[in-house]
Structure formats: structure tokens, C-alpha cells
Amino acid sequence: MEGCIFCSIAKGEVNSYKIYEDGLILGVLDINPTSLGHSILFTKKHYNNIFEIPQEEYLHLMSISRAIAFAIEKRFKVENVDILYSKEINKGVIIPHAIVFLIPRYKDDKIQYYLPKDEKIDLNDVKNQIMNEIEIIKGGENQQREETKKIETKTSNNTNNESDKIILPEKKKKAIA
Hints:
This protein is of the alpha+beta class.
């Protein structure tokens, strides 16, 4: 995408400190690190956020993230490596590309992800809200599956005419007659 710094890095138009590269993914050191070894991984193809990445490519990104986090942990002997993702805007900073952050955590680091102790949250309410949203999402997926089954049934009852064939999203390689 034009104007996206991460697309420019992926194309080699902007210098970076590459730690990993394959046909789909690029890993570089963060130029504003939170800690020693802080890295970012992203798809070479532009996606605004991880929810736009096709499932197979997303799984590849996460697999590589896990492997590199393990390498960072071993090399720098850190307590842990946080694997984080922020959707497009992170504390007011616009990140116009799907990125996974690998943040090494050292024994005495000052990185904190906790709310102030005086801020109270009703965890039951939060739990219920999340569970309700999961059910809504699952319902949408079930509806999509049902619509796909209807299409499959309808097309399987048609003739084997070449113009009647459709390609279903889940079965890109197979044409259903």
C-alpha cells in the first residue's frame, strides 16, 4: 500500500535490521525498542490488521513469531518474550499494517500491562460481554456454513454444465458442479 512504511520495508525501499525473511513474512528489529531484542514481524502483503489476513498466512505468521520469540529467549536469556498485536492504532500511534510485536522481558524491566490498583473492573461483566460476543461471532460463522451447504446442494443438483460450476471460498481448488 502506498504510504505504508512496512510495505516500503518489505519492498526494500527503506533500510531495516532484518532478522527473518521468507516469501510471506518479514521480521525486523524495532527501531524504537522497548527492550533489547524487541522485534516486529509482518506480512509482506499489506493487511490493515490481523483480521484481514487469510487464515493460512496468519497461522504462518504466528508460527514464525513463536519460533523467533524462542530464539530471542534463548539468545538473550530473557525471562519471557511477550507476543503482542495491536489493531491499527496503538496508544495514539497509527500502525497501518498487521504487525506482531516480540518484546523480550528481562528480570528487572519496568514494562507494565496492568491497570492501576485503584481502578475497579467487574470481571463477571467483562466475562459475560466477551462470551456473548463469541456466541454472536460463532452464530455468524454457522450461518455462513449453512449458506455454503445450500449452495453446494443447489449446485450438486444442477447439470454438469461447465457454466454452473462455482468455486466456494473453503474449497478454492475444487470446482463443485
